[in-house]
Amino acid sequence: MQHSSCIFLFSVPTAPQRIDTYAPEISTTLMVKKVIIATRESRLALWQAEHVKALLEARMGWQVELLGMTTMGDQIQDRSLSKVGGKGLFVKELEVAIEEGRADMAVHSLKDVPMDLPDGFALACVLERGDPHDAFVSNNFDSLAALPLGAVVGTSSLRRLVLLKAIRPDLLVKPLRGNLDTRLRKLDEGQYDAIVLAAAGLQRLGMQARIKSIFSSQDMLPAAGQGALGIEVAASRSDLIQDLATLADMPTWLAVTAERTVSRAMGGSCSMPLAAFTTGNAAEGLLLRAAWGDPASDQLASTPLKPMVYASDTASVSNFAQAEALGDKVASALRAGGAVWTNNAGLVQGQ
């Protein structure tokens, strides 16, 4: 299953699926000749893969190739993700390529990756987080507040839907599918008055000029893991897990673990009307805030049936167990406040 050409001068013990402490700065494998990264072929996905490629070449001296792929999530453009299986549709084909030995790893936006990976796969590292916030994009209006009554806003994220409707119940929120360029084209064609996108994606592609304003986390609480990149490998690849751990940003990894634990506790998917975001310093105290909304049952643009449910807690976090405990505590508070996920909206369980 491996593409890497490696010679081991000593045995390497099987590594756990994640590392709870900083790994040593010296690589434990020798003579890694080549690795292949499976990636979607959108401009943003390719940027992410190229970013990791450059890190591996600069820090490891590896030869890195990209394997471009089209996923089921890319192919289904006429329905919202929550109705066809969630954001996991963007990673399945990449995992198959790893499983079949055609690739060694895949680079993901963590907000698109379930907390619990399929059997046989591991999250080898999480890189330093980019901008975790959402961006307001419009050709005619400078902010959400400037939109006229009944304006059309595009998003297919249930999280963004419920948060937008909490701020502006008058808005008509319509589904918006496609890669970043496709979404911007639909805006430019006049199909929407504004759209909401992840700020990090626009920034990474040098498209900051399209951003009219950045939502604060008070107004638009980010998704769990938003702005962070993770590298997925086969769980059996202890060589890659140990080497890739040297690229990890542990403050980011601990923070997103707390956030993603909320998602797991509330249903386990990336397609729920859920926001979870941490601020602060892990050692001194992470503040984890979460929000839950209830989209109406008839269509994506409907007003939420119930008021938003909010929960938060603070804890010192120095390892994954403490991060998960914080996430579980906040998820319990959400449920106590009335956050319950059902299928009565015709949605697949799971942001």
UniProtKB/TrEMBL annotation:
<dbReference type="InterPro" id="IPR000860">
    <property type="entry name" value="HemC"/>
</dbReference>
<dbReference type="GO" id="GO:0006782">
    <property type="term" value="P:protoporphyrinogen IX biosynthetic process"/>
</dbReference>
<dbReference type="InterPro" id="IPR022418">
    <property type="entry name" value="Porphobilinogen_deaminase_C"/>
</dbReference>
<feature type="modified residue" description="S-(dipyrrolylmethanemethyl)cysteine">
    <location>
        <position position="270"/>
    </location>
</feature>
<comment type="pathway">
    <text>Porphyrin-containing compound metabolism; protoporphyrin-IX biosynthesis; coproporphyrinogen-III from 5-aminolevulinate: step 2/4.</text>
</comment>
<dbReference type="Pfam" id="PF03900">
    <property type="entry name" value="Porphobil_deamC"/>
</dbReference>
<comment type="similarity">
    <text>Belongs to the HMBS family.</text>
</comment>
<dbReference type="InterPro" id="IPR022417">
    <property type="entry name" value="Porphobilin_deaminase_N"/>
</dbReference>
<dbReference type="InterPro" id="IPR036803">
    <property type="entry name" value="Porphobilinogen_deaminase_C_sf"/>
</dbReference>
<protein>
    <recommendedName>
        <fullName>Porphobilinogen deaminase</fullName>
        <ecNumber>2.5.1.61</ecNumber>
    </recommendedName>
</protein>
<dbReference type="GO" id="GO:0004418">
    <property type="term" value="F:hydroxymethylbilane synthase activity"/>
</dbReference>
<feature type="domain" description="Porphobilinogen deaminase C-terminal">
    <location>
        <begin position="253"/>
        <end position="334"/>
    </location>
</feature>
<dbReference type="Pfam" id="PF01379">
    <property type="entry name" value="Porphobil_deam"/>
</dbReference>
<keyword id="KW-0627">Porphyrin biosynthesis</keyword>
<comment type="subunit">
    <text>Monomer.</text>
</comment>
<dbReference type="GO" id="GO:0005737">
    <property type="term" value="C:cytoplasm"/>
</dbReference>
<comment type="function">
    <text>Tetrapolymerization of the monopyrrole PBG into the hydroxymethylbilane pre-uroporphyrinogen in several discrete steps.</text>
</comment>
<feature type="domain" description="Porphobilinogen deaminase N-terminal">
    <location>
        <begin position="36"/>
        <end position="240"/>
    </location>
</feature>
<keyword id="KW-0808">Transferase</keyword>
